[in-house]
Amino acid sequence: MIARVRLFANLVQYCPGAKVGQPFDVELAAGGTLADLIAHLKLPRDQVKVIFVNGIGAPPDHVIQPGDEIGIFSPIGGG
Amino acid sequence: MWFLRVNMTDRTAKLEEVPDQYKNLGGRGLTSSLVAAEVPPLCHPLGPNNKLVFASGIITGTPANTSARVSVGGKSPLTGGIKEANAGSSWAQDLPSLGIKALVVEGQPKEKGKFWGIHIAWDAAAGKPKVEFFDATEYAGKDLYDVFPKVYERFGDKISIAGCGVAGEFKYGNSGIVFNDMSKRPSRYAGRGGLGAVLGSKGLKWIVLDEKGSPGVPIADKALFEQGRKKMNDALRTHDITKPKGGLNTYGTAVLINIMNEAGGLPTKNFSSGRFDQAAQIAGEAIFEGNKTRLGKELYNHACSPGCIIQCSNTWHDKNGKEIASCVEYESDWSLGANCGIGDLDAIGEMVKLCNAYGLDTIETGATLGVAMEAGVVPFGDAKGAINLVHEMGKGTPMGRILGAGTGMAGQVLGMTRIPAVKGQGMPAYEPRAVKGIGITYATSTMGADHTAGYTIAPEILGVSGKQDPLSPEGKAALSRAFQATTAFIDSSGHCLFIAFAILDIASGFEGMVEECNGVLGTNWTGDDIVKLGGEILKKERAFNQAAGITDKHDRVPEFMKTEPLPPHNQVFDISDAALDSVYGEL
Ligand code: SF4
User: Fold this and answer.
1) Which residues of chain B, if any, have pLDDT below 50?
2) What is the Cα A7 distance to its own chain's centre?
3) What's the fold here for domain A2-73?
4) What is the pLDDT of residue B305?
5) How far, in Å, CA of B191 to CA of B37, rounded?
6) What is the reported pTM?
7) Distance between CA atoms of residues B78 and B67, nearest Å
8) d(CA B259, CA B262)
9) What is the reported pLDDT for B490?
10) Contact across the interface for B250 and A10, Cβ inside 8 Å
């Protein structure tokens, strides 16, 4: 199964070649969760703060569906 | 400490002992209490009976970190209600250092077309501050970047400056009070609600402070204060958002562009969509990377005011490495960018600088431009056209004056129905239809549409202080109420609101804030008292607004948000009137 992933803020540093907000495809086993994706990408768990799937916030145990658009953010704030 | 009353009718100044009921107040708590007690709610905001009150926070001027904030209050010419706007600046520390707990500007000069300045310095022989008036007409009608250096030249390098730009002189509903930043730029604004016009209406151009030799802020219990300061310091230095080289220090507040876009809540092209196809190129990450390319090195952000350890203020540079603007905040980046369909950071930076130069509030400016663009004044995405409109506002042309009146008024003149404003004040950078809690804050805040009044974005989007579904209406009235009350206290403490990211997650940081305040004042407040004290401030503000003719019926988002579904989530604002009324009804 292919997941379409975009990384934001400082997360690109953990995935060589990744650019902020530019989508790339990741191949995962069927039934894979967001936690599996994070492990696969070797993102430090404490640096993953908010994950969106198709624009909706999702928890790490969310099971990824083919075609899901996933956006991952490290801890950020502003105002 | 004293209240300093400056009367602009006869240009006199008077020091008063602080009455007991005001002794434990600071910042917003003090400005709102004084305005509620002394300003007739039905007065004209630009007439002689309005007052403009400046008060720094309870701990401002002490060694507490990230606490150089000053509140400015009065009756707002934009909303017709009570207003508090705050800014970070050395000015905020210098006012209480001079022994001044609140500066109250009253009255109005009879002669038109003249502007005055006041210079306040410490008179060591007399043991009190000394106030001198000077003719400031020569500085009127000019770019603040041109006249700020002249004020420094005249009064010395160590002063701090507050004032208004031409927007205040023209008495626009869109006009802020300007303060100096650490590099003497006219770039820190108590921006919202048209308080620059109130200053302008009083013929006051500058308030110059020279704190040399002043006694500083007394601390009742130094050990307790120090204990609190350390707890706050530890929280700020360890939380991922506030720590050095953390989220705010690296990417600035504009880091929110991408996450709001992802959440489908980045208001785009006058609140017609929640996604902007050029969001990535104007985001905080793009600013960081763009500066790196243009400067050949990484540039982390700086402090807007002395003693800030979060340091979130960025500077955007052109291709030759020359500064375009500081600071491009999220709100400005959004309002002058996504909301106008403009994806060019150089153009956005130029407009930020123009707003600073003319004394305009960037949020109100971008929200107004969005409405004007939809009305066809210039097309969405037309950066040159937008820049010209900001110039028109600065020059006071007929179109400029219409736009300078603010989002609500300009929208009405231009015959628009999609006018994103509450109580006449333009909405900030979060879409109520995609983030329901912040919509409740916009609708019900005593300030008009104001995100800082109850920043539910923290749990709804950022995962700070728990996680809440932004699209769900459930429990959001209570959430907004709790945030509004806590915020009213933080705005009184003197801390920058951005400490909230750390202290909402780290309990000892919250304790630290309470101990810092208790240490300065000698009070025994508990954490629970904070929410109660904040609630008391809100009640005073609300009572003023009611007496000024603002009712529950004004606590509503514009109609189009209840009928037009917003892409991409295709949601409307589905919070019931009863839920909105419960925010203050159950306070
Ligand atoms: S966190 Fe940012 S806005 Fe707040 S005081 Fe520090 S530099 Fe200024």
Assistant:
1) none
2) 6
3) Ubiquitin-like (UB roll) (3.10.20)
4) 98
5) 23
6) 0.98
7) 28
8) 5
9) 97
10) yes
